[in-house]
Write a sequence for this structure.
């Protein structure tokens, strides 16, 4: 089994790589080779006995997508992308990576010319939806994104479905919720604060809250997201039917409920490290995002998120903080 | 007022041009200039006193879109496209025209750099939906097309909404039903037979019916479609909100009901000119198309189709046959 991960240097890419290396197998088959691609140099995963190909490449650049699939990986996790706030601030960069890079990858697969038909797990986003919403978004709700990021993600879903329908690949798209708690440094995602208001206080630092506590959003841990990707790679084509893009399960809660959960788990002094600092751009972007999604099809197909935000915080402490925090 | 029509040599393009010339005004303002663009040479409309620019161009080709908007038309009707069956048979040609051509036009507008922000009326299609459907498709139903044509149309809707949201243009997308009765020669649209089973018998010729009489679809006349385009051009931006792509009203009926209407209006000898000739590709494409759509938002905004298929046949006889047919 040969696996390609695009966006391998990103947070989810690294956690997915770690888990694949730890398990040594995917869909019950041993992993012989890993191709790790990113625009910044990915690092060699420690403890992996198989072959590793490290690729520093922009998929949208001429020939790069063809090179990325030259060894015909059987499974591709396509995670590469420019995040929401960055794609909003840099229109060309966002479309270049999120649309053209994706299309170049799909096109290279189609043009392989040797019957190559990989399993292709595509990461879409809840940001492909746009307000106004019903209280919970049904599986057949339309995609009317209110960001360029969400637009490109939705366009990628459409392309993936068409390429799959025509038999060029065996695709599945996962509309991921906000991934929370993101470890490490903040990125340019507009959703970043959902993580930093938990992560920074647990590390003894102050966190800025750019929106009101009444803002509701829907979350899953990095561990759950990686689990969804791996579960998707193992789903047989015929279980999906023609609608291969799925809203993923998640935990819906308000920012106030997030803070309460932090207080329950880590105590008031930790929760007190959150400072209000309203930000108009973030407020505007987040106001167009979904608060809750049914994800009935995904749940029926075996996809799982956490059951509470408390659980999401505990997973962060366990997976990223070695079990402890700054009280 | 300067108007650009892309796909001007097509059936709807020609009928739209005729009506604009006849009325001499759009949105209450006199039409001073018409730019007519198509991949095949458009013809100069008779009886138009204003300036006419005829452009034979592929919008996706380098520089062509910029040239098309060089005179800064205030209203653009973007009708250019490769039809459904052709886009299904020629994957590259379909995406080149329906996606790349559309993106090139939007991109040229964005890059004008002089504050240019035209009204842009985009023709999408009911083929942007994909089965299975509820009995009638609600306005917030997702787009899961089952053709490459529908996929590119849905991607164009997403792009148009993002370009409009960002202020590059003032867009509105119309999800047109099957346009029936199409005059003239059959084209490569999979929906062509919906028209030819009416048109050919009325002209004294035999028509082939490639699908079962139980097949239900949803229609509007060319006259109604042109009316929708013109109505769209006059809608103020603020009446639309962020969801600028709308399912259009239409007449839902089965092929059997179409034939009954033909019998009522033209008599049994005319209806008897339809011959059954099943076609697997057409059957498959049409099976994934919608049977009925609510179009509640469009109706509330003043868009209108016919009330019955009888009316659609009468409009064909009136507009395209000079009021008579071969009994």
């Amino acid at each position: 089994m040969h696996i390609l991960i695009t966006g391998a240097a990103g947070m989810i890419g690294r956690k997915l790589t770690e888990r694949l290396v730890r398990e040594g197998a995917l869909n019950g088959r041993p992993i012989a080779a890993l191709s790790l691609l990113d625009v910044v140099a990915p690092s060699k995963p420690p403890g992996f006995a198989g072959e590793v190909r490290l690729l520093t490449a922009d998929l949208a650049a001429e020939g790069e997508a063809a090179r990325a699939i030259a060894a015909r990986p059987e499974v591709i996790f396509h995670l590469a992308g420019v995040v929401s706030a960055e794609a909003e601030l840099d229109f060309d960069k966002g479309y270049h990576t999120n649309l053209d890079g994706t299309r170049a990858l799909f096109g290279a697969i189609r043009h392989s010319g040797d019957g190559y038909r990989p399993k292709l797990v595509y990461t879409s986003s809840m940001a492909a939806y746009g307000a106004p919403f019903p209280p919970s978004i049904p599986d057949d709700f339309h995609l009317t994104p209110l960001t360029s990021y969400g637009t490109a993600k939705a366009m990628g879903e459409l392309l993936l479905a068409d390429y799959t329908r025509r038999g060029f690949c065996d695709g599945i798209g996962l509309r991921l919720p906000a991934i929370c708690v993101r470890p490490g440094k903040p990125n340019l995602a507009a959703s970043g604060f959902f993580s930093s208001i938990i992560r920074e206080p647990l590390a003894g630092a102050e966190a800025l809250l750019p929106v009101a506590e009444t803002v509701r959003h829907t979350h899953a841990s990095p561990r759950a997201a990686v689990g969804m990707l791996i579960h998707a790679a193992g789903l047989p084509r015929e279980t999906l039917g023609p609608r291969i893009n799925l809203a993923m399960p998640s935990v819906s809660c308000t920012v106030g409920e997030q803070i309460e959960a932090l207080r329950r788990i880590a105590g008031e002094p930790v929760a007190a490290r959150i400072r209000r600092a309203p930000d108009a751009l973030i407020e505007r972007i987040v106001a167009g995002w979904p608060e809750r999604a049914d994800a009935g099809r995904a749940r029926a197909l075996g996809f799982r998120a956490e059951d509470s935000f408390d659980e999401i915080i505990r997973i962060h402490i366990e997976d990223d903080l070695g079990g402890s925090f700054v009280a």
